[in-house]
User: Fold these one by one.
Assistant:
Number 1:
Amino acid sequence: MTSIKNQFKFIICGTDTDIGKTLISALFVRGLNSFYWKPIQSGIGSETDSQAVKRLAKVEQGKIINEAYIFREPVSPHWAAEKDQKIINFQQLNLPNVDGSLIVETAGGLMVPITRNYLQIEQIKKWGIPVILICKSGLGTLNHTLLSVEALKKRNINILGLVINGKKHLDNPKTLTEFSNLPIIAEFPYIQEIDSNNLDIIWRELNIKNKLISLLKSKENK
Ligand SMILES: Nc1ncnc2c1ncn2[C@@H]1O[C@H](COP(=O)(O)OP(=O)(O)OP(=O)(O)O)[C@@H](O)[C@H]1O
Ligand SMILES: [Mg+2]
């Protein structure tokens, strides 16, 4: 489990695909000098999520744990596996045992099927480590985020808080906190130039490590 002193283990999940999970994973991996694991990568494109995190977080290769599955097509894992004529073995999805912090990035959103009868959210429940939900800042986020939170809560999944990604919105953070009753870990700004230097500046400015420690402490005291 997560120890507040020096080991942080989180699942980075999003309200949708393309919501900023990889970028924010890179922020956390760099800030916490943690291991990173993308268990299922669908689609290779110009770079995989693991390669993007390695490039942005600039951690040693040993911190990037090999994917359990890499499928060729950028579609939902259940279909991507079928297209590649592969069968997902759930044993391969068990959390890796690492000596240090760990960031796990899910494939897409919570209700993405991993197989024809198994959803990502069921695997998240099995993993049993806290979830950080990445959501977008702008229009559409209230519906997507509150639905995602409801699905997590219904399954008693431990949610550490939200990271709101994108151009600052005047009302959504307040509305999301009020309806979800969840803390906002960070409002991650839209950035023109994404590099490790800017990630360091944002990590410090948003004081994320202290925020994580105090949120974990307050959960322990409940
Ligand atoms: N705050 C931001 N500022 C600038 N660009 C951003 C920001 N957030 C995300 N992006 C860009 O949007 C794209 C999608 O982000 P990212 O790859 O992190 O999403 P994802 O949720 O990991 O997607 P997937 O579901 O494919 O894993 C990337 O090109 C990323 O650099
Ligand atoms: Mg990603």
Number 2:
Amino acid sequence: MGEHTGAKLTPVEYLAHLMTPEKQSDHICWQCKHFKWVQKGSGFPPKDIIGWCKKIHWPHYWSISDMDVIKKCYASEPLA
Ligand code: SF4
């Protein structure tokens, strides 16, 4: 996990942290069940990456750039 502050989180705080994305954008991917976003505070991925598509480029989990704003996608499937 990203920045290591040494602070202890409660289970609820930890879950809230896991559900918090690093970025916000207009990509259709945010409404798609195949999208895995970069978690807030993660220092691993490049700064222009909002997350990964787990379908089209499987098994490599290709990253989606902040600059490649996707408005339509043939493989998009809505969140349940
Ligand atoms: S299937 Fe399409 S909409 Fe869904 S995460 Fe991949 S690129 Fe984004």
